[in-house]
Amino acid sequence: MFTASRLVLARKRRRMTLAKLSQASNISVRSLTAFENGHKSPSGDTLMSLAGALELPSTFFTASDLAEIPVNEASFRALTKMSALDRDSALSAGSFAIAINDWIEERFDLPPVDVPTFPHLQPEEAAELLRARWGLGEAPIPHMIRLLEAHGIRVFSLATDCSSVDAFSIRHRGKQPFIFLNTQKSGERGRFDAAHELGHLVLHSEHRIPHGPEAEKEAQHFASAFLMPRAGIIAQDLHNTSLDRILVAKKAWKVAAIALTYRLHELGLMSDWLYRVTAKQLAQMGYRRSEPGGIDRESSHLLTKVFAGLRENGISALQVAEAVDLTLDELNKHIFGLAPIALEGGGELSSPIRPSLQLIENKRLVGR
Ligand SMILES: [Zn+2]
């Protein structure tokens, strides 16, 4: 049995045109096209060549169809500037992550989805309403990824070879939300990206496509309002404040200094003149390129617990990779920076297990 759609996804995942795959595998473009159309199936040896060229196990190509992500449903930032190869590689990486998630969901009880949609609200109101619904009050959010996971959003790493794409999110089959994060940015930027994608999920899931400059502006505004709620910021008494106080306050809110400065200006707490001066000073101090003295990157509580739970049951990361028909290296790309997985093999594949993990007590996040 050969699954044509998997060949297409694998080729896109590796950013290959038919010509390039033909070169890498020594199989003619004509045959490749016939395989991809499902008109012909490769022989055993040919399948091995394909698997080698695409760096995937041969079992990958014979498993059942993977879920595909329509390009319209993914919240890409600059779709028009993105090359089709980059876009398709990120989308197929998303398909792989969905398969990994399906496998995990069959074995663990994960938090149910609690992500409302507010398609008719302004970003500021939507952020306030979501904070109220999730019981966050006006306090800083201690851990964004943990918060998203506690409300049923699955967070995966944007495969490192897709980092040009930035973060993106989807509601898979209109229901299960996923966020794919670039886990190589600063801790503060990672949190802002997570909040930005949350904004797309809340504002743009139902009736509107999450593309275009307007949607981007709204997601940015949502992220700003969600991480730095109006009432909480006003209570800090930061009216026309000094740079020193901004650098103290940004640590408490766990946001970039520039993001806090922008927010103060947005809320009318900083004059245009002072905003320009402060932004310039911050840029001179290196805060535009990076975040000096910044916070650690956030990791995934959920994936860390899942892989630890599997290990306790004698199931190694390599066995997980084999079970989802990926190589360990490919599996690692999807959780890189979010959860440590042992890179060595070993461990017997025991009988099917179903450990129940009660993940993430919501209450710990509330009303700090
Ligand atoms: Zn966006």
Provide key terms for this protein.
elongated; 434 Repressor (Amino-terminal Domain); three-stranded mixed sheet; mainly alpha; 368 residues; 16 helices
Task: Outline the fold blueprint.
Blueprint: H1 4-13, H2 18-25, H3 29-37, H4 44-54, H5 84-105, H6 123-133, H7 144-150, E1 154-157, E2 168-172, E3 176-181, H8 187-203, H9 212-227, H10 230-234, H11 243-253, H12 257-266, H13 272-284, H14 301-312, H15 317-323, H16 328-335
Parallel strand pairs: 1-3
Antiparallel strand pairs: 2-3
Helix pairs in contact: 1-5, 6-9, 8-9, 12-13
The protein binds zinc ion (ZN).
Write up what this structure looks like.
The protein folds into 3 domains: about 1-65, 434 Repressor (Amino-terminal Domain) (Orthogonal Bundle); about 70-225 and about 300-368, no CATH class; about 230-245 and about 260-285, no CATH class. Helices cover about 50% and strands about 5% of the residues. It is built from 16 helices and 3 strands. It has helices at about 5-15, 20-25, 30-35, 45-55, 85-105, 125-135, 145-150, 185-205, 210-225, 230-235, 245-255, 255-265, 270-285, 300-310, 315-325, 330-335; strands at about 155, 170, 175-180. It has a 3-stranded mixed β-sheet with strand order 1-3-2, sandwiched between helices. A hairpin with a 3-residue loop joins strand 2 and strand 3 (about 175-180). Helix 1 crosses helix 5 (about 85-105), helix 6 (about 125-135) crosses helix 9 (about 210-225) and helix 12 runs antiparallel to helix 13. It is elongated. It binds zinc ion (ZN). Zinc ion (ZN) binds near residues 75, 77, 216 and 219.
